[in-house]
Amino acid sequence: MSADFWAGYISGAVGILIGNPLDLIKVRLQARDAIAAQTPTSYARQFETKSALVSGTAAPVLGYGALNALLFVSYNRSEAALNAAFNTQHNLWATWLAGAIGGLATWVVSTPTELIKCRAQLSSPPESSWSITKHVLKNEGIRGLYFGGVVTALRDSIGYGFYFWSYELSSKWVESSRPNADAFSQDAAKVLLCGGLAGVVTWASIFPLDVIKTRVQTQTFGAEVTPLLGSPISAQRRFGAIEVARDAYKEGGMRVFFRGLTVCSVRAFIVNAVQWAVYEWIMLELGQGRNKRLEPT
């Protein structure tokens, strides 16, 4: 396996472990009435049991590690191919497009991972990721794991385009503003800052799509009232992304598409600062540091 595969895998798993508590709050805020009042006390109540801290982590730790590995490998190869095809170096448009291609490539992993994670985080009483997976496979087959795949693919493609674009843009800005800084301290501070900013920019750019994705994927078969849509659905049909978006807009206008963005932004900064630091450190240890990767070939 290549260096960027292992760096992506490990950094992705580390990011999930760090960010899961805030991700749990984010998902429950996106779901209607999952958290009744948006106050510090109501947030704290989400972790009254120890298991709540790791609720829904099994699927993303395994899946997101693989997703992140696939993302970085696809991004790096796509960027190299685009730069070669257009005879450019370090072009931000090529960076965005390569990120979008990388995000689209992760669809095969991200859709089932997100579906299982979100259902585990909203399940009451709590269910394990494995239990939810078995239930979906038994009742819906493999196709059930890919419910909501279109909106997930759109979210990932757009989001990861901005993810790599904002990381490279902020990296260039920091490098130009601190040309004489000590190399080690500059790199450490830069990676943490730029990684955190990239995470915030990414989620800000696709948060409405993420709200829709969460509500689509947490629908289940059955005539009973669902926790997200608040109305019965037939046993043979669930709402698609457009119908879910309309229902959400009727519920609370445009504000509903940004519910949980503050919590998500805090989580995004912390997780992606650490994630990029781990990625860059592993790449450096494996002889593929940033300076080496940016050398013209």
> Percentage of helical residues?
over 70%
Portion in beta strands: under 5%
What sort of overall outline do the alpha carbons produce when their principal axes are compared? Answer: globular
Number of helices: 12
Architecture overview:
Helix content is 72%, strand content 0%. By secondary structure, the chain is an all-alpha fold. Helix 5 (107-122) crosses helix 6 (129-140). Mean pLDDT is 81; it is low at 34-38, 43-48, 50-56 and 222-235.
In terms of topology, how is this protein built?
Layout: H1 3-30, H2 40-44, H3 58-86, H4 92-105, H5 107-122, H6 129-140, H7 142-145, H8 149-177, H9 183-217, H10 241-252, H11 261-285, H12 290-293
Provide keyphrases for this structure:
mainly alpha; about 300 residues; 12 helices; single chain
Could you give a short description of this structure?
With 297 residues, this protein is an all-alpha fold. It has helices spanning 3-30, 40-44, 58-86, 92-105, 107-122, 129-140, 142-145, 149-177, 183-217, 241-252, 261-285, 290-293.
